Amino acid sequence: MPHSVTLITTIAVSFGLALLMGLIAHRLKLPVLVGYLTAGVILGSNTPGFVADIELSGQLAEIGVILLMFGVGLHFSLNDLLAVRRIAVPGAIVQIAAATAFGAIVAHAWGWNMGVAIVFGVALSTASTVVLLRALEQRGLLKSVNGSIALGWLVVEDLAMVLVLVLLPPLSGWLGGNADTAAEISGSGLFMTLLVTFGKVAIFIALMLIVGKRVFPWLLWHVASTNSTELFILSVIAVAIGIAYGSAMLFGVSFALGAFFAGMVMRESDLSHRAAQESLPLRDAFSVLFFVSVGMLFDPKVLVEQPFRVVATLAIIIIGKSLAAFFLVLLFRYPLNTALTVSASLAQIGEFSFILAALGVSLGLLPVEAQSLIVAGAFISITLNPLVFRVIEPAQAWIRSRSSLARILERSDDPLAELPTTVASSYVTNHVVLVGYGRVGRRIGEALAEQGLPLVVAEQNRDMVEALRKRGTHAVAGDAAEPAVLIQAHVARAAMLVIAVPDTLRARRMIEIARMLNPPIEIMVRTHNEEEAALLRKESDATVFLGEHELALSMTRLVMEKIRPAPSEKRREAG
Prior knowledge:
Blueprint: H1 6-27, H2 32-43, H3 54-75, H4 78-83, H5 85-109, H6 114-123, H7 129-138, H8 145-175, H9 187-224, H10 229-251, H11 255-266, H12 272-297, H13 301-305, H14 307-331, H15 336-345, H16 351-362, H17 368-390, H18 392-400, H19 403-410, E1 432-435, H20 439-450, E2 455-459, H21 462-470, E3 474-477, H22 483-488, E4 496-499, H23 504-517, E5 522-527, H24 530-540, E6 543-546, H25 547-563, H26 567-574
Parallel strand pairs: 1-2, 1-4, 2-3, 4-5, 5-6
Helix pairs in contact: 1-2, 1-12, 2-12, 3-10, 3-11, 3-12, 5-6, 5-8, 5-14, 6-16, 7-8, 8-9, 8-15, 8-16, 9-10, 9-11, 10-11, 14-15, 14-17, 15-18, 16-17
């Protein structure tokens, strides 16, 4: 086969087989990504038949990762990231340390030296951002507090892995790597390496936030003024891939992280929503190649040759990491649902694990067997991740059914979980209970405050609750889908419940609790889906606001006001 068609062959066969296996997986009631992974196994060198170009597939998959992270950045502001920093930064660091310790202990028990064991543990400690984003998007959780915490957590993990990849080569001699590949450095040299790495990352972030926030939105607007759809799409793709490449080559930042920050600064443009929509088809198509490329790396023989070690590796990824994250989130006094969501988000590994494993093998720090176990752990954990997310609701119900366990886990003595005793009883009578203080909830809350109307906010983000209380706004921390939170907000005496979070499943629970405690209460709820809006109206008799519908009504009213003839013009026409 001529070399000139290798790229076309790889894309054609990968997409075609991914489509076929995805359809089969859907018919079997399995997640479609299982089909994509299976397509990769079939195309890989470890199974008979046609073998795709694995290196080329990996680079194509990287484009999907770049576009996916760029799209997330377009919807995820710096304020969203800063809002969860108090839990995401220490949580991610401690969780990485815990997972590394689990992996190192198990690997050392297998007879590997401590240097190898540590690298193996680090490779199991970081989750795949691509898998997380697909899971959050499919469940409508990307813009929720739980989604923001999980995404912020993984951004911190990505930054930590960038640092590990930089430091591993100079430290490989100390960890027991090959003498001819290990470059030992002194303590002062290590300090300089750290300093240079942090300096590069800091310069990159500063450039993105200071220069990028001005340049990229201006560029997008300038291209849009040409009225050329092709140029607009090209500008979006060029910025995403160009910044990702430049960040990796110049600053040592990963492609994914560079694309994420590019999307965040591009969000400052009024055209960011259009940019996200225009790049969506290409982003979804190339993200499929990521899962196919993972499948290509998987060698099924490891399941037969090392079944117990595969199980142990999976236990660290799915159980060890998840439990560490679960208790860490609860330690920060976040609700049980948040702890379970973050735990499920981290119960898999992906792209950084492969990069780290390959680097470890090249430095003589990891045996090939360890790399096979890491790839097997990634393949199986990614396959099982949708099932792990489905366990969240049953697990929460099981814990809730054991009230004493729930009280211990959620720390019922939390001062932010209830209103201060100084709040007057008259204030929490005929008041408004506002659930969620995000982009929509904040505008509602500020408008009510300007009118002097009594208000109690129920919000999962503890930092937000603390900030609201400092400003004099009454607020309680917790998941309003749980009765205790709405009870603390005194929904039983409220005149109205306003649900400003776009999670329909949780909104239905809130409505059920509110109706049970206060049957005549007025309820308003938002949604993004017409089917969900119809369901909410039918089940709850609530006033439902559909985003696109309300926008159309507002624009229509404004149009009618602008084109309606003035009274003087009407009199002239009548005369």
